[in-house]
Design brief:
This protein is of the alpha+beta class. Helices cover 43% and strands 17% of the residues. The protein has two domains: 2-86 and 151-330, Roll (C8orf32 fold), CATH 3.10.620.30; 88-140, N-terminal domain of TfIIb. It has helices spanning 2-6, 11-23, 33-42, 45-58, 67-83, 141-147, 152-168, 211-215, 235-238, 254-275, 281-304, 325-330, and strands at residues 85-86, 101-108, 118-126, 132-138, 149-150, 174-179, 183-190, 195-200, 205-206, 223-226, 231-233. Helix 5 (67-83) packs antiparallel against helix 7. The termini are far apart. The structure holds zinc ion. Residues 144-203 form the Transglutaminase-like domain.
C-alpha cells in the first residue's frame, strides 16, 4: 500500500521515502545473539577494558560520564586505531601500493551465494603491473569483523554491531543514523548524560553533532535515526540553519514526512506488541506505552527544546579526516 502511493511522488521525495521505509528495520541486522558472541570473541577485550580502567581513573569525580560511556569512548578509539581500515582505493597485491591503481567502475555482484551480502564490486587496475583488483562492498556486519576495511558504510555497519554487543544486548539504546547527502553514523543512549549521543566511528568523534555543519561545512537536507522500536527525524539536531538545504526542494510538505514516519512507527509498535511474551493484554499495552511511546515522546520534546546539542568542547580539525583530500572536496566535506 505504502509503496503504491510512493510511486506517485516526485523523484526526490520518492527517493527519501523509499530509503526511510527500506531502512526502517535496519537494526534487525544487529540482533542475533550468535553474532554478539562472535564480536566478543573477535575484538581485543583485554586491551579495551584495560584502557577503560585508565579512562575511569582520569574521569573526574564530578563527571557525568559513567562506566559504559567510557567503554563507548574507548571503542571509538580502538575501532579507528587498531581494528578497521579506511579504503580510498584498494592496494595492488603485487606492488603493495595504491598510487598506481585506477578505478574501472563498479558492477553488480553476480554469484549464486552471497554470504557477505556484497552489493557492488568495484573494479580497479594497477598501471604499473596491470593486475586487476576487485573491491567488494560488503554489507554483512559479521563478515566485516573479518574483512575490516571499507568506507563510512562499512565502518558504521561494523561499529554498530560491536557497540550493540558491548553495551546494549537487547535494549533499544543503539541506533543507526542516515544522512541523505551520503553519510552515516550512529548514536547510543547514555544513562549518564540522559540523552542520545552522536558517534562518528570513521573519525572517532564522540558527542559532536555539529561536526558536519561546523567543521566539514557539509550542506545537508535530512538526517534520520533508526532504533529498534521507532524511527525519528534528527535533522534539527545535526543541521544548522546556514547549512540546511531547502527541504521544500525535496518534499512538498514537512507534515507529510512526519505522517509517513508516524505510519512506520505504528507498524513498528504493532510488531513490538506482537513479540511481547507477557500474558495479559493490559500488561502488553502498558509495556508498549512505557517502552516505546513515552520514550519517543520524551526524545521529541528534547529535540524541540534543543536540549540535545552540546557545546563544542573538543578542538576538532576543519574538514573531514577520512578519505583523500580530492574525495572530501568533491563531496563538499573539506570544511571550505
Ligand atoms: Zn601493481
Amino acid at each position: 500500500m505504502m509503496s503504491y502511493r510512493l510511486r506517485k511522488l516526485p523523484q526526490n521525495a520518492r527517493q527519501l521515502y523509499e530509503t526511510i521505509l527500506g531502512m526502517s528495520n535496519i537494526m534487525d541486522k544487529y540482533k542475533d545473539p550468535l553474532d554478539m558472541n562472535t564480536v566478543l570473541d573477535t575484538i581485543d577485550l583485554a586491551s579495551i577494558y584495560e584502557n577503560v580502567d585508565k579512562r575511569e581513573r582520569e574521569n573526574g569525580p564530578h563527571s557525568e560520564l559513567q562506566y559504559d560511556d567510557l567503554v563507548v569512548k574507548e571503542l571509538l578509539h580502538y575501532f579507528k586505531n587498531s581494528f578497521f581500515k579506511w579504503v580510498n582505493k584498494p592496494e595492488c597485491p603485487l606492488c603493495h601500493s595504491e598510487s598506481n591503481v585506477v578505478g574501472l567502475g563498479g558492477s553488480r555482484f553476480s554469484g549464486s551465494s552471497n554470504p557477505d551480502q556484497v552489493s557492488v564490486v568495484e573494479n580497479y587496475q594497477c598501471r604499473e603491473c596491470n593486475s586487476r583488483i576487485q573491491f567488494p562492498r560488503v554489507n554483512n556486519p559479521v563478515s566485516l569483523l573479518k574483512t575490516r576495511r571499507g568506507r563510512c558504510g562499512e565502518w558504521v555497519n561494523c561499529f554498530t554491531l560491536i557497540l550493540r554487543a558491548m553495551i546494549a544486548e537487547d535494549r533499544d539504546r543503539v541506533r543507526y543514523v542516515w544522512n541523505m547527502e551520503d553519510h552515516v553514523w550512529c548514536e547510543y543512549y547514555s544513562y549518564g548524560l540522559k540523552r542520545w549521543v552522536h558517534l562518528d566511528p570513521c573519525e572517532a568523534v564522540f558527542d559532536e553533532p555539529l561536526l558536519y555543519c561546523n567543521n566539514w561545512n557539509k550542506k545537508m537536507s535530512f538526517v534520520i535515526g533508526y532504533n529498534d522500536n521507532y524511527i525519528i527525524d534528527l535533522s534539527s539536531k545535526y543541521i544548522t540553519d546556514s547549512n540546511q538545504i531547502d527541504k521544500s526542494t525535496i518534499i512538498p510538505s514537512l507534515k507529510q514526512l512526519s505522517r509517513f514516519i508516524n505510519a512506520i512507527n505504528c507498524n513498528k509498535l504493532l510488531r513490538y506488541y506482537k513479540c511481547l511474551d507477557t500474558a495479559s493484554q493490559d500488561e502488553k499495552l502498558t509495556k508498549c506505552y512505557n517502552d516505546v511511546i513515552v520514550v519517543l515522546n520524551r526524545e521529541l520534546l528534547q529535540l524541540k527544546d534543543h536540549k540535545v546539542t552540546p557545546t563544542m568542547t573538543q578542538e576538532l580539525p576543519k574538514g573531514r579526516q577520512t578519505g583523500s583530500s580530492e574525495w572530501t572536496k568533491e563531496r563538499g566535506e573539506d570544511g571550505n
